[in-house]
Design a protein that fits this description.
- The protein has a domain of 201 residues: Spore Coat Polysaccharide Biosynthesis Protein SpsA, Chain A, CATH 3.90.550.10.
- 27% of the residues lie in helices and 27% in strands.
- It has 7 helices and 13 strands.
- A hairpin with a 5-residue loop joins strand 7 and strand 8.
Length: 300
């Protein structure tokens, strides 16, 4: 079964203060992307597609794409502000990127097989890639409309250096996603996990499933995304800072009864580099995983 990994690597890293995609965190100078590609290949993925910006193309190609292409098929496309559906006028004052949902749409001409979407700057761990790949392979003869996601326990996804936003998932008895609620400014406070709820403190259970942008789709999703994105632009035409996110795609599919989303538990701890202060901890955790034998000293 053909499986593609779609890596969202066009982010600006404004909170981080630099290009997180190319930051070296492994013992031999590996990036977080290196570990995601390594884990994906072990899980059976056979193509990687990157969404990038034109201004980082040279660096991405020299540092990442050239070495990957010796082991797996690599393609990349650009996320650009003016790449919007035909018949839609670009708002004159728009300068902010359109968001992760728009990034997914950029891949519609290069993906014709089931695929998984991830962030470039998140370390997901082996379990996420394996559990999702195994599910998709098991459903391969009847996969249309049977999407899935890797779900992480909220307590395993927080930063020690600031608050984060998370998509909190509500699931049914079949572990299918029923609703996803975006919670902002989540962090530890007096041994409790607290989120900002319109200015009020809301305590959250650490065992709740959250989305870390690890979604699996079939290529049938692309026309659905295009249709929903057109509506989003029209509805938010005067809001030049609005962004179209992947959970919007998922919500559209569920409300339209186009797909169900199975929530599959990823047992590894997620970590990432949201803030510059996160980097030493990421380096430490990857070193620990290497010492445990889960990764070689040199990946590539």
């Amino acid at each position: 079964m053909d499986l593609t990994l779609l890596v969202l690597a066009a982010g600006m890293g404004s909170r981080y203060g630099g290009l997180k995609q190319l930051d070296q965190v492994g013992p031999s100078g590996e990036t977080i992307i290196d570990y995601s590609v390594y884990d994906a290949m072990e899980a059976g993925f056979n193509k990687i597609v990157f969404i990038i910006r034109k201004d980082i193309e040279k660096d991405m190609k020299e540092l990442l794409f050239d070495k990957y292409s010796q082991k797996i098929k690599i393609e990349y496309v650009f996320q650009e502000l003016d790449k919007i559906p035909d018949g839609i006028e670009l708002p004159a004052d728009r300068v902010k990127p359109w968001g992760t949902g728009h990034a997914v749409l950029m891949a519609k001409d290069v993906i014709n097989e089931p695929f998984v979407v991830i962030n470039a700057d998140d370390f997901y761990g082996k379990s996420a890639f394996k559990v999702v790949a195994d599910y998709m392979k098991a459903q391969q003869n009847d996969l249309k409309g049977k999407n899935c996601m890797a779900g992480y326990r909220l307590k395993n996804t927080l930063s020690e250096h600031g608050t984060v936003s998370r998509g909190v998932c509500k699931v049914n008895d079949q572990n299918e996603l029923v609703e996803i609620i975006e919670r902002t400014k989540i962090g530890w406070k007096d041994a409790k996990i607290i989120a900002d709820d319109y200015g009020n403190n809301l305590e959250l259970n650490g065992d709740l499933f959250v989305s870390m942008n690890f979604w699996a789709f079939t290529p049938d999703v692309f026309p659905e995304v295009e249709s929903d994105f057109k509506k989003f632009i029209k509805d938010n035409y005067d809001n030049i800072k609005s962004e179209y996110y992947i959970p919007s795609i998922v919500s559209y599919q569920m409300k339209s009864k186009l797909a169900t989303v199975k929530v599959l538990e990823a047992t590894d701890q997620w970590f990432g580099v949201t803030y510059q202060e996160d980097k030493p901890l990421v380096i430490e955790k990857i070193q620990h995983l290497t010492e445990e034998g889960k990764y070689p000293e040199k990946l590539w």
